[in-house]
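Run tRNA 2-selenouridine synthase through structure prediction, thanks.
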Amino acid sequence: MPATRIDVSRFLELSAELPVFDVRSEGEFAHAHFPGAHSLPLFNNEERSVIGTAYKQESQQKAIKIGLQYFGPRMVSMVEAVERQLEGRQRKAVMVYCWRGGMRSGGVAWLLDLYGFEVYTLIGGYKAFRTWSIRQMSREYPLQLVGGYTGSGKTEVLAELRRKGEAVVDLEALASHKGSAFGNIGMTNQPSQEMFENMLGLALWQAETKATASNKGIWVEDESQRIGSVNIPTPLYQFMLGRPVYFLEIPFEERVRHLERGYGKADREKLVNAILRIQKRLGGLETKNAINHIIEGNIAAGFAILLRYYDKFYRKSLELKADMASQVIPICCEQVDARSNALQILSQQTKQEHARTI
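Sure, done. The structure for tRNA 2-selenouridine synthase is below.
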């Protein structure tokens, strides 16, 4: 039977169970795509350019003929690529999209349907998903922020909350950056801004679905708007500023020890380069002292200098939240212990909800 055309809502639902194939060029895919999609380019970057030139300078028919010349020889390899992804699956169904849901996805859908696969195509293509993703950034979500000074183990607390069945959106994982000058150490390359927004939009949708089912909120880390090279979209960030912050109050020395455990074996050169990136704000003397400590292997002393800088920076952000009428709820913790601190947050959240009902 012919491919079934579906809208973005249905596409999102089915993406949880069916493999998704992006048939745009490898360059388009590398820039941004539907999270989790497999690249199955009908035309490569150069071929796409040739076809586009023929369409503009000659005719649509000429462009189609050139496209068919490229398409024919790779039909078998494309079918085999899909077969590999479907190996072990009982249902031989796939979803396909291109830029606008036009000829590229239509051609590949025809081929896969002819071979015997159950095929779905996205109405409006990637452009429709992109529009949906942007809209997610302007919506209001039941967000609850996990805050705390640098070294408080906020990421680990979020992971523990997720293990306890809570809805969580890990902004740093999506951005592939831990937020500070050291944020890229031990992380993969950051996505493009567009890809970050795509992943964030999908993560928010998934978290909201889970939160609604359990009548709970969505936990996110209290972040600066900029995370490495990407930014939390302004509408969403402005909304976050007014949400409650469960602030982990952990002793300075405990946070230094936590950072020492996390970065103690990191490449010294990378640590020094990270310090140099903030030297203007840190100051010449403190920069020199921190670098000397790192080079000498005294990680704790080096990070103690950096923590004093980051603590001052974070205090300013808390003042901004106070101006935005955000509620800062202190969570007094003796040490960086994700399990214990997550339980304290949940306990305090229950008290807050109870107080609102009285």
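The mean pLDDT is 92.
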